[in-house]
Amino acid sequence: METVLRIEKLEKSFGELKVLKGIDLEVHQGEVVTMIGASGSGKSTLLRCINLLEIADAGQIWFEGHDLMDPATDLNALRQRIGMVFQSFNLFNNKNVLDNCTMAPISVKKMPRKEAEELAVKNLTAVGLADFIYADSRRLSGGQKQRVAIARALCMQPDIMLFDEPTSALDPEIVGEVLDVMKKLAADGMTMVVVTHEMAFAREVSDRVVFMDKGVILEQGSPAAVFGSPKEARTREFLARYLDD
Amino acid sequence: MNALNKRARQVKIAHIVLLVIAAALCVRFAVTLVESARIGAAADKNPMEFLPSLFYMLINSKDMFLAGIWTTVRIALFGTAIAFVLAVLLVFVRVQVPQRQDKAGTVVLKEIGALLSKLYITVIRGTPMMVQTLIIYYIGFGIFKGTGMSVTDINRVWSCFISGLITVSLNSTAYLTEVLRGGIESIDPGQAEAARSLGMSNWQTMLKVVFPQAVKNSIPAIGNEFIINIKDSSVLSVIGCYDLMFATTSVVGIYYKALPVYTIAAVTYLILTCLSSLIMRFVAARLDMKSVSVPSSN
Questions:
Q1: Is residue A146 within 8 Å of A122, Cβ to Cβ?
Q2: Under a CB-based contact definition with an 8 Å cutoff, are residues B290 and B216 in contact?
Q3: Which of A30, A219, B37, B118 is 20 to 30 A removed from A37 (C-alpha atoms)?
Q4: Contact A139 B198 (CB under 8 A)
C-alpha cells in the first residue's frame, strides 16, 4: 500500500512542556487510523503538526513525497489536499452553509462558482444537509455544524482527512449523526486520521489504533489487538476506564 | 393582601405620582419655551431675559449656526470615512506577523511596518487634538510658503476646512486602527485556522474570513468614533475653521452675550450626537437581522 503520510522523530514543545517526544507514524492510502489516549497525551498537537497549524520543533513530516518541514514547501498547495475537521467546528461565521463550502474551492482552486456550488450541494447532500444549503451557519445545531465542516473539507477534494476530536463538543445524543458520516467516508475509501474518545467508533471503523501516552506512541495495531489484548499496562489501564462505562 | 403585594402597589403609586409631576414640569417647560420663542422672534432688540434672548439670537443668527452645523457634519462624516479607509490600510500593517516561509527582507519590512504604525498610534493618541490641529495647520502653511505662494493664495488652497478635515482624519485613523485591531483580535483563532487548513493564504484568510467579521463587530465602535468627531471637531475653531463652535463664538462676539449662545451650541451638539446614535443603532440592528433564521434540530 502506498504511504500517504510519514512522520519521523517529530518533537514539539510549548515552552517548558514537551508535548511530542519523537513520534514515528506512517499512514497508508485508504487507511483509517484512530488515535486514542488521555487528554494531554499529545494527540491533537500531533494532528495539528501534520498540517502545520503548529510548527514542530524537530523531526520530519512527509506528505505524498513532499517535505512539509522544509520552509520552501508551498504549504497552501499541500493544505488543499489535507482536510481538517476541528473539535469546535470553526465554520465561517460570516457565511451561510453553501458559502462555507464554496469559499476555498473558488478562492484557492479558482474553481468556477457554478462548479463549486454543485460540488458543495453534492457533499452537503452526502452529509444529510441538503435542506440547509442557504442556512446561516451560526444557527445550526452542533451536529449539523460539524457535518457542514466535514462537507466543507471534502469540497477541497482532499487526499487525507484529519479529525481533531470531532464529536467532543457535541451532546451525546447527536454524536451518532457525525460518526455515521465519518463511517460512510471511511467506507468510501478516504484516508483518515481521527483523534477521538469514541472507543466504539475506533474499534468498529479503524484499520489501525494508535495509543498515545505522554507524548509518545506507546502501542499501535489492529483494533482487535489493541482493544482485545493490549501489550502495555498503561494501555490496559486507559482502556479499562472507558470499557467500564 | 400580603406585604409583598402592598409594597408593589405603593411602588406603582409612587411611579404614577412621579410621572404626573414630570409631565406637568415638561408641559410647563414647553409652554415657557414657546412663549420665549414668540417674544424672541417679535423683539427688535436683544431681550434681557435668558430664554427670550437665546431665541432672539438663534433666530437672528440662524444662517451662521446653519453654516457651522453644515461644516461640523461634513468634517465628522468625511473625516470618519477617510479615517476608516486609512485605518483599514494601517491595521493590515499593524497586525502583520512574520510567517515561516517569509524571506528575511519581508520579515524586516513587516517588523518595521508594525513598529511604525504603533508609533503613529501612540503619538496621535498621546497628544491633544488641539495641538495636532495647530501643528498640521502650520506644517501645511509652511510647506506652501516654501513654494513661494502669497498668503492669500495659501489661504485659498490650504483652507481651514481642508486642514481641519485632514486633522480629524489623521486623528481618527489612529483610534479606528485600534478599534479594527481589537476587532481582528476578538475573532476566534479557529476561524483563521479553518481557512488556513483549507489551503487559503494568509492574505485570503484575512480578506475573506477574519476582516469582514472584524469590521462587522467594530461597527458600533466606528459609529462611536463618528459621534466623538462631531464633538471633538469643535477644537478646529482654533485655526478658524467655520464649524459650529466657531459660529457660536462669532455670535457671542456680535451680541456680547455668552451663556445663551453657548447653550444653543450645547443643545445643537446634543441633538447631532443623539441623532447619530439613533442612526447607528438602526444600522447595527439591520446588519444583525440579515441572517436567515432556520429551524434547528438540536
A1: no
A2: no
A3: A30
A4: no
Q: Tell me, what amino acid is at A213?
A: D
Which of B101, B197, B216 is the mutation pick for testing A, counting most A CBs within 10 A?
B197
CA dist A236 and A218 (Å) reads 11
Q: Kindly report the nearest CA distance between residue A38 and chain B, in angstroms.
A: 23
Range of the domain at B41: 2-56
> Contact, B91 vs B215, CB < 8 A?
no
Examine the domain organization and report whether B115 and B198 are in the same domain.
yes
Assigned domain for B137 exists: yes
Angstrom distance (rounded) from CA B69 to CA B82: 20
| Cell, residue A1 | 500500500
Q: Report the distance separating Cα B290 and Cα A115, nearest Å.
A: 26
ipTM of the modeled complex: 0.91
CA B153 to chain centre: 31
Beta bridge partners of A26: A6
Q: Please count the other Cβ atoms lying within 10 Å of the Cβ belonging to residue B103.
A: 9
Compute the CA torsion angle B29, B30, B33, B37 (nearest 10 deg). Answer: -170
Q: Report the predicted TM-score, pTM, of the whole model to 2 decimal places.
A: 0.85
Whether B208 has its CB under 8 Å from any CB of chain A: the answer is yes
Mean pLDDT per segment of 10 residues, for chain B of length 298 residues? 83 95 96 93 90 93 95 96 96 85 85 93 96 95 90 89 95 96 94 94 92 91 93 92 94 94 96 93 74 35
- The domain tally of chain B equals 2
HSE of A196, CA atoms in CB hemisphere, 13 A: 26
CA distances B158 to A55, B52, B154, B166, Å, are 53, 40, 5, 11
Contact B198 A108 (CB under 8 A): yes
Q: Which of A93, A146, A141 is nearest to A124 (CA)?
A: A146
